[in-house]
Amino acid sequence: MRLLVTGGAGYVGSVVAAQLVEAGHEVTVLDDLSTGHADAVPDGARFVRADLAEAHDALDGQDAVLHFAAKSLVGESVEKPELYWRHNLGGTLALLEAMHGKGVRRIVFSSTAATYGEPISPQILESDPPRPTNPYGETKLAVDMALTAFAGLRGLGAVSLRYFNVAGAYGRFRERHAIETHLIPNVLKVATGEREEVQVFGTDYPTPDGTCVRDYVHVADLARAHLLALGAVTEGEHKIYNLGSGTGFSVKEVVDVCREVTGHPIPEKVGPRRTGDPAVLVASSDKIQAELGWKAERTALPTIVADAWAALSGK
Ligand code: UDP
Fold first, then answer.
1. What is the ipTM of this complex?
2. Which residue, of 50, 142, 221, 258, is most buried by count of CB atoms within 10 Å of its CB?
3. Nearest Cα to 301, choosing from 259, 243, 241, 270?
4. Residue 241 catalytic?
5. Half-sphere exposure at residue 238, Cβ-oriented, CA atoms within 13 angstroms
């Protein structure tokens, strides 16, 4: 197929673009490089440096769009809500309008567990109420709502994939954010000497060791789900699936595994809770397993961390 990958110079987008190229698709990456990296665009993909409002020409002749381009920092979204609404909702609406104009009727969208907010069940289901607690989650949910509306009114075929905690690397393709907020890359930066210690945000949560529990899903597994989703896009329908491993690990468990993998003592410092962090976030991915046959395979935390470490350290 001929595919446009927006945000394909970012972490998840670059891994999906690489897997699409490997699968024999004709891939164009559209990215404004505001947070992505030109050298993350995989060999074999065409690269267009442009933002979503300029996607028009790149849509010519495409069979489908995989849409990753977005602002994705929760804290920044609270400080600059206008920026998030403009980029994430405004940018996507411009893209959808351009798709409509060019007759491109299929999209796979990078959504997030942040659309749910505080969980009401031990394993979050797609049918749980979406109640985001920050502008990042709100804007992603707004896009999901637009996709549902356009599926009904325009015959668009859409699949939204709601990611839990994406981690690990796919070969050389790894997480590289100028402002790094995520746990695993921050812990590994202590092992490379880039940081002195890891901050543990709160040890008084109602969890077995008092630190937050998250569902870490390997980026290679996550990317594979996008290829399955592409095959499942049905015009006139909007399908939503969670993507997680179904198992939770605490912050302390993550830090311990990073110590084992890197052989570095990784000093830690306990700090206060980070605002807006729920105690436990674990996905049920039963729906995508039942409907598309997807299941996370690289679920062992040492595997996830070892892949991230190998890509970061070159070991
Ligand atoms: N966390 C931490 N120290 C850090 C970064 C994150 O203790 O330097 C915690 C954070 O409070 C959360 C978990 O690690 O409980 C995962 O955070 P991350 O930002 O990686 O993902 P999120 O679950 O917020 O999407």
1. 0.98
2. 258
3. 259
4. no
5. 18
